[in-house]
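Students often ask what a holo structure prediction actually looks like on paper. The answer is less mysterious than it sounds. You provide the chain, you provide the ligand, and the output is a string of discrete structure tokens encoding the 3D arrangement of the protein together with iron/sulfur cluster.
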Amino acid sequence: MKLPNLSDARKRTDKKTEYIYLDKEYDKSIFKGKKYFIKTYGCQMNVHDSEEISAHLENIGFSKVEEMEDADIVILNTCAIRENAHDKLFGFLGRCKHVKTTSNPNLIIAICGCMAQEESVCSTIKEKYPYVDLVFGTHNICDLEELLINKSEKQNIEVLSCEGNVYENIKYKRDSKFKAWVNIQYGCDKFCTYCIVPYTRGKQRSRKSADILKEVEELVKDGYKEVTLLGQNVNAYGKDLDGELSFAELLQKVADTKIERVRFVTSHPWDFTDEMIDVIVNNDNVMNYIHLPLQSGSDRILKLMGRRYTKDEYIKLFNKIKDKVKGASITTDIIVGFPNESEEDFKETLDVVNICKFDSAFTFIYSPREGTPAAKMDDKISLEEKEKRLYELNELINNYSLMNNKKYVDRVEKVLVEGINEKDSSKLFGYTETMKLVNFEGSQDLIGQIVDVQITEAKSFSLDGKLKR
Ligand code: 5AD
Ligand code: SF4
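The corresponding structure tokens follow.
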């Protein structure tokens, strides 16, 4: 039993990151015939972690099922960024309990991901959720085989709070055969005052570029069409290592593998260099799509958030990217209602939105995360006021999304076909180079291919199109 601890999670020492190359072979007969169901909440990092968790489970013989009711083990890979993530998890746990008490008393219920790293969550589980069998943290994923092989009847909470290491040789069970996530760095040292990530994910650790490039080259060999380089602070890549490539240099090398599409998330404006812009401009296979979180347009709030840039600096960077990268689409994240955000502060945010006219944005009401500096700030703004601001912001964002999308009508776009439209099975869906969702009619054998689609109609959140033959 190892419970998480906030003060350890916050610590940054000069301890060197260890690079651990996994090589242990497991006996696949241990859990042969047993099934796992995995539910993933949150960001792409979590989606990719689930692909790693699947690898560890399949190493010891488990196979995947799509319904919880068919499973012997349920893994809930959680997110801690915002409040509703907590509600969702505890809601879903109720469903798991029902299955365990009615149809499958041997069901193993396991919780992992960022919420597992939170002290308060683990103590709640310990006290009130005795039917949860296992909790393992973001730094314990590689121990999963051992945790299950040695599992006892008692609830086990194994959550390390530490700066973290880098594990290599993970045989990811990827959800897609044509687009892949590739971690390039883990953790974050920015400590934005509202954010829990530096506590749940540990310090910034970059993978070695040789390991990353080997992974990408293998993906190319396996026929993958797209890689997305992942990091909480993707463009701070390499800053924690001596003599390692910069992010721009790594991006160039990934482009040199000739994979058809390269993307990267999430960039911090503070680490966005001119060299990065040049690499995007000079390589057709580096997509002209950039996610660039703004968070707030008010200098006062940006300072309180610890974001390291001003409104003007953000706008300057935005304009530089737009000027240099032809046809770039830029999306953002915005938080409304940071403690004591005034009406004037909020107007500054609207002002940036009116200047930048983002292609789209993820917008959030600020939610205090226990242990972060912002959670200690007193806040006199009512939730009602924050909801009003969010509504106003979303209206504005949606207008600009539609306006930007309308520019695509009649254009022919390259679309990587991802699958069948859930609502209308006669249609396929995929994404343009600029990350616009496109729905169009076509045969299922196009899934996984890049095709030309003529755009016929624009909506706020998607485009309709017609396959070009
Ligand atoms: N409250 C609201 N939104 C948050 N985000 C991160 N932490 C919080 C919080 N405490 C948002 C930021 C970030 C995105 C992933 O989630 O906008 O960019
Ligand atoms: Fe959180 Fe800021 Fe790090 Fe992004 S840069 S993960 S918002 S602390």
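The chain is about 30% helix and 20% strand.
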